[in-house]
């Protein structure tokens, strides 16, 4: 959730809500390394809803991984780190398959 937009001298800062845990930290902190199937289904459903929302707004995330899936206290998954995201539709410029 975007909380504020701060205009600096030469930069623009976006202030988002703070979530202190990502899916990787959550999985690493599990004693057995396993999570209940019901929770897996819940997280997967939320992830698919988020990806569907992005795609419906013509955005491809391109960097989905446990570290970029944030979890709040209520167990809500939020997509993060859109640094590699791209819009799709009419191509504006050519991209390479190479990883930087």
TrEMBL record:
Which Pfam families does the annotation name? Answer: Pkinase
> Which ranges carry the Protein kinase domain?
1-100
- What is this protein's record name? CDK3 kinase
Q: Which UniProt keywords apply?
A: ATP-binding, Kinase, Nucleotide-binding, Serine/threonine-protein kinase, Transferase
Q: Which SUPFAM superfamilies match?
A: Protein kinase-like (PK-like)
Annotated family: Belongs to the protein kinase superfamily. CMGC Ser/Thr protein kinase family. CDC2/CDKX subfamily.
Question: Key word Transferase present in the record?
Answer: yes
Looking up PANTHER family in the UniProt record yields: CELL DIVISION PROTEIN KINASE, CYCLIN-DEPENDENT KINASE 3
- What GO molecular function terms would the record report? ATP binding; cyclin binding; cyclin-dependent protein serine/threonine kinase activity
Q: What processes does the entry annotate via GO biological process terms? A: G1/S transition of mitotic cell cycle; regulation of G2/M transition of mitotic cell cycle; regulation of gene expression; signal transduction
Q: Which PROSITE patterns match?
A: PROTEIN_KINASE_DOM, PROTEIN_KINASE_ST
Species of origin reads: Ciccaba nigrolineata
Q: Name one GO cellular component term.
A: cyclin-dependent protein kinase holoenzyme complex
Keyword Nucleotide-binding annotated:
yes
